[in-house]
Amino acid sequence: MMVAGSPASGARARWLGHGVLALLIAVATIAAFLPALGNGFVSWDDIASFLDNPHYRGLGWAQVKWAFTTFHMGLYMPLSWLTLGLDYVLWGMNPVGYHLSSLLLHGATTLAFYFLSFRLLGL
Fold first, then answer.
1. Which of 37, 59, 88, 93 maximizes the CB count within 10 A of its CB?
2. Residue 65, phi then psi, degrees to nearest 5
3. For 65-102, how does the pLDDT look when each residue is reduced to its tens digit (9 = 90+)?
4. Residue 108, CB-side half-sphere exposure with 13 Å CA sphere
5. What are phi and psi for residue 39, nearest 5 degrees?
6. How many Cβ atoms are within 10 Å of 95's Cβ, its own excluded?
7. Per-residue pLDDT tens for 7-26?
8. CA neighbor of 35 nearest in space, from 100, 83, 80, 94
9. Of 90, 27, 32, which Cα lies nearest the Cα of 57?
10. Are 53 and 72 in contact (CB under 8 A)?
11. Cβ(110)–Cβ(25) under 8 Å?
């Protein structure tokens, strides 16, 4: 049992405060990118990467092998291809799903960066 004012309760309150701050930062990040959900695929590189590329679609052996052995458009990005393969499994070719996954990854990355920075800086 923790007694109010004990060192353990102070540390817990600090971590709770940091958790609330981190959550607010993640929510702000998600809110900033929320309008992306209304967008479709764009004509910059989405045509070559997603629309005209059947190789990443799914998580079967052929797709995983392709992800780890291909330099598509000059880039080697197997983890990105695997997440896009998962997007295809979950959302098909609906761009809202791809944007939603990206939005959630941005929010999670914000949380990870906050807590990693907090630990590295020793604050």
1. 88
2. -60, -45
3. 999 999 999 999 999 999 999 999 999 999 999 999 99
4. 6
5. -95, 155
6. 19
7. 666 667 676 777 888 889 99
8. 100
9. 90
10. yes
11. yes
Percent of the chain with pLDDT over 70: 89
- Asked if residue 115 lies in contact with residue 37, where contact means CB atoms within 8 angstroms, the answer is no
User: Which residue carries 């990693």 as its tokens?
Assistant: 116
Find how far residue 92's CA is from the centre of its chain: 18
Phi, psi of 44 (to 5 degrees): -70, -65
Higher pLDDT, 19 or 54: 54
CA distance 13 to 28: 22
Give the per-residue pLDDT at 75. 92
Q: Which two tokens stand for residue 10?
A: 């102070």
Q: Which amino acid is at 69?
A: T
Q: Measure CA of the first residue to CA of the last residue in the chain; give whole Å.
A: 26
pTM above 0.85, yes or no: no
Residues 6+ apart with CB under 8 A from 121: none
pLDDT surpasses 60 at 112: yes
The answer to whether residue 2 scores a pLDDT higher than 70 is no
